[in-house]
Write the structure tokens for this entry.
Amino acid sequence: MVIIITIAFILGTLALMFGNWPLFWGSAALVVVGGIVGLVMSKAGLGKKRH
């Protein structure tokens, strides 16, 4: 999950630097996907347990 969000952040930064708006918005959507993946993985029992 963290890797997905990090890659999306880097791609979004590069997209803004080069003025590539479709890539920027795709990266923004990828951040949301990363959060959903994290939630699904957490529900599957992966990751740190909350106390």
In short: DSSP finds two helices and no strands in the chain. The first helix runs from residue 2 to 18. The chain has a mean pLDDT of 92.
